[in-house]
Fold:
Amino acid sequence: HPDSGNSIRRRFLEFFATRGHKVPRQVPRATTAQKCIRTNDVENVGRTSRHHTMFIMCGNFSFGDYFKKDAIAWAWELSTEEFGLPADRLWVSVYEDDDEAFSIWHNEVGVPSERIKRMGEEDNFWSSGATGPCGPCSELYYDFHPERGCLDVDLGDDTRFLEFYNLVFMQYNKTEDGSLAPLKQKNIDTGLGLERLARILQKVPNNYETDLIYPIIEKASELANVSYGVADDPTKTKLKIIGDHMRAVVYLISDGVVPSNIGRGYVVRRLIRRTVRTGRLLGIKGDGKGDREGAFLPIIAQKVIELSTEIDPDVRNQAARILEELRREELRFVQTLERGEKLLEQMLKESLSSGSENGSEPCLSGKDAFLLYDTYGFPVEITIEVAQERGVHVDMNEFDAEMENQRQQSQAAHNAVRLAVGNDADLAETIPETEFLGYDTLSARAMIEG
Ligand code: ATP
Ligand code: MG
Ligand code: MG
Ligand code: MG
Structure:
């Protein structure tokens, strides 16, 4: 089907290939479809309809070749002609000072000015750091509710709009004193979210229900013995979390990342633990198929591997190693969880006896619940449930305070990892090092953005 996730990916690459974009060395224009990991979106997974920890970003790049005019015209042609999105459903944003981009969108492409929004630095100005190459962005949004009109429109309203394509115009060099000097070589760096475009074209309510992710969710539903279609929202959210995280961990492990307590290894470990816990909350026991000592992650991972062939053919070659790594990590974590269960049992006994001693309602402290969560990886939802069954209340205010405290301490660990696909290693070598310090999208190695 032309609108399947894999076709969309192929059509994007072909569109730019026929416009002179290549993947070999020393090229002025390139086009890629890269795996991206963004752990800073982990809390959004399953809660918004559009964020994943791992997604495919299609991109077209110009290294000192074409600039704003072509980048904008092609983004429009790709969206409206190649993918057939109705022109009157598209809105664009430009950086507030970028009159040039505004004028190209309005005068050359013909987008009515009320559908071009000027936005500030936070949303529409890209820079790699305090100094270095930087420049304005322009984003394309799809409008799901044109009947709501053009007055008081906020492109950030995700009940109405979906950002799917971002164009970065690298045109300045920011110097120590904060001034912007024009770059001699101007570059284009774009990103189009494959799952987001698939969602629009496949006319499903969120990215998770596209053919890129839904089969994984179906597998998880089968193990949990629920049906996604009729499930309540909390159940759907859990299934989406599993669908998202399993994709991320399979690709990360395939790229050689091993679960550990530091760096990228910790990213994988955290995602695996979240998946295991989420599975238990859905009632998946053991492998979900009757073996209580078994692991369920490898069963779901199998589906991710099946879906990976076009995105990254190497995943299939790594299948055995991926499945074994997941099995081992899951079983190890389940042991930790079970130790937590024993500790909780003790804590509950103490709460009950001190409650009856001083005639107050038995309460488990937030500190204890946090210890279980933080050290034993024990989900607080399970703590609450088990405590409730025993008539014990959990001090959630104290728990939340502990969480907040930890969140502040670990802010720095909120990293974003981006991975490049197989043969982009060649592409990365075409990048002149001094000019492209910020081009993490082109990095061939998995890396962590601070
Ligand atoms: P949003 O505002 O929706 O969080 P963004 O502005 O942070 O998106 P960019 O950094 O501009 O995203 O990335 C380029 C494109 O990559 C976006 O236009 C979108 O299509 C896609 N994208 C970004 N973050 C995610 C994500 N977490 N999951 C899926 N796709 C994403
Ligand atoms: Mg974002
Ligand atoms: Mg945005
Ligand atoms: Mg953006």
Observations:
- Residues 319-357 form the longest helix (39 residues).
